[in-house]
Amino acid sequence: MSDSIATYADAVQQIAKAEGDAGVESQLASFAQALQGNDDLTSTLSDSSIPVQRRQQVIEDLLGGRASKTTTAVISMLVAAGRAKDIPAISKAVSEQGSVGRGRELAEVRSAVPLTEDQTQRLTAALKKSTGKDVDINVVIDKTVVGGLVTQIGDTVIDGSVRSRLTKMRDAFN
Amino acid sequence: MWTLAAEGPNGQWIPGDINEFYWSAIAFLIVFAIMLWKGLGPLKAAMAARTERISSELAVADNAKAEADARRSEQLAKLGDADAEAATIVSDARSRAASMKTEMIAKAEADAEASKVKALADIETSKGQALSDVRSEVARNAADAAEAVVTDNLDDARLASMIDNYIAEVGA
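ok -> structure tokens follow
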């Protein structure tokens, strides 16, 4: 993690704490997840030829009613600062810092499709049972996974993706 | 003076006074005797000196000729030596050329053999590489086809099922 990412993550944490908004972390994670699955949106928010006000208006339109004012303001700030492409990394850093603050571990889960709430809860319980630790889940949409999931907790990787099976199949062919 | 002529007017075969003839003859003989008396010695000496000089010059010429002959013989001998040396050089050169030819032929044959061995090795390597490439291509195509089949059959239900199975395995 670069220093600038960590600094922005700190700033987001401080803003959320100052505003008393505990939902910023999860809402930012959801927005980051949406951003990763939409290259056009990422390009639009990163396009410096589009006026900042116009890009911030896009944020307002997208999040209006779905996220708190604090979350919307944080994301607008990041877009205005030219950090739209870094939002997934900043969100991950915010989640890691939040998990550490709560005495929990952050599990990064890579999936080709978004997880339902039920799947997220069951996966959280399953990871707690498997590792013996309380975990927070940060889902990253990654089409290269193809199917299944890849979970990373600290240095531990639990790979149940179709991609890894296809890779093994290719290795077997060779 | 000795030219024959018809008898002159005096009835003699010599025209003029015959006494004049006698006196002239006597004077001539006297002058001739004096010349013999005074000139014969020096003339003989001059002739002898001339003969001696000519002999001396002939001797010098003979010596020069002998010396020239000696030099010529010496030069011929040297030429003979030079010819022998040239023949030796030519012989050595031929021998060396023959040796070099043999060496060059041997080297050319060795190079040709090495090239042949290398070419065969390259052919074998290329053959192995080609087979490997074909195998890799076949494997890649098979893997691409298998992946296409898998991804084409992954609908939402299957993706959800795979996630559920993953969660079940992690929690087991």
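The first helix of chain A runs from residue 3 to 19.
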